[in-house]
Design brief:
Length: 453
């Protein structure tokens, strides 16, 4: 009765949280299983960014509740952002859930499961759902344990939790709480330990990752705490690449822009959320930058690294968005020439300022605008990939592709590449000549003489 399956919805932060919970449970003697059909305990780590994400998780939990009738000892838990957002109110829809744990209580999951299993073993009805969505000081420091697969070459490292931005459309400040940063020495030690275990690439994570440590550490010589952290991770032997997400445009000060030119392990890839290209809509969203400032950041980064790759987040159909507002977004979207983008149709999130705004945009208009940006994105990707044909790219070999016929890895610009190779190259940085491309994937062959293919 100790087999656990964790199903994760949403962002990389949620993936990292699930991994930390899995590591804690393994340390307590639980087995983590890949197939939910094989588990005795199923935990849903949920997302609340959009209503559709919540409804998907609620539907899944409702379906699983039927399993309890056939398997009375089956334990069902809901963790993360939706648990934090809805709390005990979830029981109106999901009365059979055994455990509801919020975003600052992941580290308590092993204790709560121990209590539930002990009650079952004693034949004592639990009688109520365990609900814990309380805030806890220092909870950001509990996301530190890792479950690494064999020959895993990349890992997420959580450095900061919470958000103080109060964007009009966003529920994250409610689900994740105020900004809280981990001690720099602990983060560096975690990265060192990952390097010792064979990890070559680190992705630093935070709700507003570029805000890291701004209340806890002094700016030294004009260098922000976040860039100080990048410098220290860059100095770790064994770590070959550094990425980070998700930043805020206001975090791209001169020191961070310059870091792309002087820190050799910092990949020439920036996720730079836009949300809208209209100043009027940015103001309504409570985003503290203008389209002009945003384009200045893009230009400054390309001046430092002409081969910079960009991804972004965009919301179409924000309340009051006119055809002219969207035209400005489309124009900026084309000008920035993104390599990747996450394009969302605005959805009402109860409890956010935007939910009460007039001028809600019809779904059909949102869909049309969404498709228009997707078409531009596909053309951008095709154009960028065409420039890579015939070039040799440094690729970090991650492992076999999904079909098991070739191996795959990523370029420094975060492009996926498929190529023939040998298993002994997993974790190595190898040169690959790009010979073919689709919109999303590059194909090539090893360009190093004497390397076994």
């Amino acid at each position: 009765m100790n087999r656990v399956h964790i199903k994760t919805y949403g962002c990389q932060m949620n993936e990292r949280d699930s991994e930390a919970v899995a590591a804690l449970l393994r340390g307590r003697g639980y087995r983590i299983v890949a197939d939910e059909a094989d588990c005795d305990i199923l935990l849903l780590n949920t997302c609340s960014v959009r209503d559709a994400a919540e409804q998907k998780a609620i539907g899944k939990a409702g379906h699983l509740a039927a399993r309890k009738k056939k398997q009375p000892d089956f334990i069902l838990g809901v963790l993360g952002c939706m648990a934090q957002n809805r709390g005990a109110g979830l029981l109106d829809r999901l009365p059979d859930v055994d455990l509801i744990v919020g975003t600052q209580k992941f580290h308590q999951v092993p204790d709560y499961l121990d209590n539930l299993r002990a009650a079952q073993a004693a034949g004592v009805p639990v009688g109520h759902t365990i609900v814990d969505i309380a805030e806890e000081a220092g909870s950001q420091n509990t996301i530190r344990d890792h479950v690494l697969e064999e020959k895993q070459v990349s890992a997420f490292v959580s450095i900061q939790q919470g958000c103080n931005m109060d964007c009009a459309f966003c529920i994250v400040p409610k689900t994740r709480g105020d900004e809280r940063s981990r001690p720099m020495d602990e983060i560096v030690r975690e990265c060192e330990q990952l390097a010792e275990r064979g990890v070559k690439e680190i992705t630093l994570l935070g709700q507003i990752v570029t805000s890291y440590g701004r209340r806890d550490y002094a700016h030294t010589g004009g260098v922000t705490p976040f860039v100080q952290l990048l410098e220290r991770v860059n100095a770790i032997p064994g770590i070959r690449r550094i990425r980070f997400t998700s930043p805020h445009p206001r975090g791209f000060k001169d020191d961070l822009i310059a870091a792309y030119g002087r820190l050799e392990k910092l990949c020439e890839y920036a996720h730079l959320p836009l949300q809208s290209g209209s100043n009027r809509i940015l103001q309504a969203m409570n985003r503290p930058y203008s389209r002009e400032r945003y384009l200045e950041i893009v230009a400054a980064l390309r001046a430092v690294r002409p081969d910079m790759y960009f991804s972004t987040d965009v919301i179409v159909g924000f309340p009051g968005e006119t055809a002219e507002d969207f035209a400005q977004t489309r124009e900026l979207f084309e000008q920035a020439n993104y390599d990747m983008a996450y394009i969302f149709k605005y959805s009402i999130r109860s409890g956010t300022p935007a939910a009460a705004l007039a001028g809600q945009v019809p779904d059909a208009v949102k869909e049309e605008r969404n498709q228009e940006l997707l078409r531009i994105l596909a053309a951008n990707s095709d154009r960028r990939n065409a420039t890579l044909l015939g070039t040799t790219q440094e690729v970090l070999v991650e492992g076999p592709d999904r079909k098991g016929r070739r191996f795959m890895g990523r370029t420094r610009g975060n492009r996926i590449v498929h190529f023939a190779a040998a298993g002994r190259l997993i974790g190595a940085l190898v040169p690959v000549k790009i010979e073919r491309a689709s919109t999303a994937v590059l194909y090539g062959s090893l360009a190093l003489a004497g390397v076994e293919k």
